[in-house]
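General statements about sequence and structure are easier to judge against a single worked case. For one protein, we set the task of working out the structure tokens from the amino acid sequence alone. This step matters because it turns folding into a mapping between discrete strings. The amino acid sequence and the backbone structure tokens for this protein are reproduced below.
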Amino acid sequence: MKKIAGIIALLVVLLLVVPFLIPTSTYMKSIENAAGEAINQPVSIGSMHIALLPSPRANVGDIVIGAKQEVRVKSIAIVPVLSSLFSSIRVIDRIEIIQPSIQKDALDFMAAMPKSSPGGAPKVLVKRILVKRAALSWPGLHLPEMNAEVMMEEGRRMQSVHLGSDDGHLKANVTPVDRGYGIQVDAQNWTMPFEPQIRLDALTASMVLRGEQLSVEKMDAALYQGHASASAVVDWGQGMEASGKFDTKAISAEGVAQLFSKKKLVSGKINGAGTFKVKAKDVSRAAESLVLDYKFDVDKGVLYGVDLAKAATLLLNSGEKGGETQFDTLSGILHMVGKLIELKQLNVVSGLLAANGGVKVLPSRQLDGLIKVELKKGVALATVPLQVSGTLDNPSVMPTKAALAGAAIGTGVLGPGVGTSLGVKAASGVDTIKGLFGK
């Protein structure tokens, strides 16, 4: 029994040690050169050896591809079907790719790689490809590490792909459909990888990929206590183009506003619908070329940082900061072009107060706009134009210079009250103050 145990122990040692004694350095350089010629990029291999345990395989480590090291792979294990090694068609049971890191520039030479092996080369069929902790470095995108399992049909064409983020928040299944691939996406507690980074409680999507076009047929998301749905088409044949439409229901205005400011800006529930389009040289420039229009309304909320009623009564004040405006309804159109945000056709209704106008949010976060506030005093309405300035985090509203001048002249000529109101009205209208009051 001792002899048998000794023989088994010796065999295990040999299986573990002998593969590392095989001199792979003599042909590793040839493999680097052949791979480099095939993809027209320099290829470097740090290590290579044959192992028999846990199953016979070839292990390659520290692979670097590209003049600027656009692709780096920690290790690749190739596990063959042993019975096929001496046949005309080699069969690979699986290829395990560990921690590949791919930069955006690598996609250019990857797209130029030949899709078939050179004539005369031995045929190789691959059953399965496993990818663990893949990282894609792309400007403007914040992508998690991904895992993938690719199943091949007859070793030649893809049968299915199962994708999942390493943190478990995102999953996708890819299967062949007519002239393309169908993609089903499911996400939980996931943050979208581009700016603004929208947090999704849940997401389901059905998409079809054909060539260089992705059709998002249906997307539903639960976010910020509400719901959103969308459809879109994305094409990257020449640059990047995308267009689509979306609608929202009962989304928290406060949650959405936090994407643009850490301060509390507005509360209430948003409903609305919109469209968007993008045309850029690549995805990293997509945010700069985004054009979005969103018609919205908010019920029963609060505007923080401004008190429109108080600002409209301080005609001779230097401006009003702070406070809040409670409203019954707030509606308008959000128009975005790149980083420029414009709120158009704004309407605010709150008891005896009504306001309308528009405000721009510049890329510097500065505010520039004009809001006309109507205050009901008894049976009469006093309309005061307010200049909106300051920043998104620290807004300021005050009567326009014309309103201040009109108020001063009206008060001087006709006295406070009626004279003040008439002066403001004249200043904000088409007629000039001179036309109403003479010299």
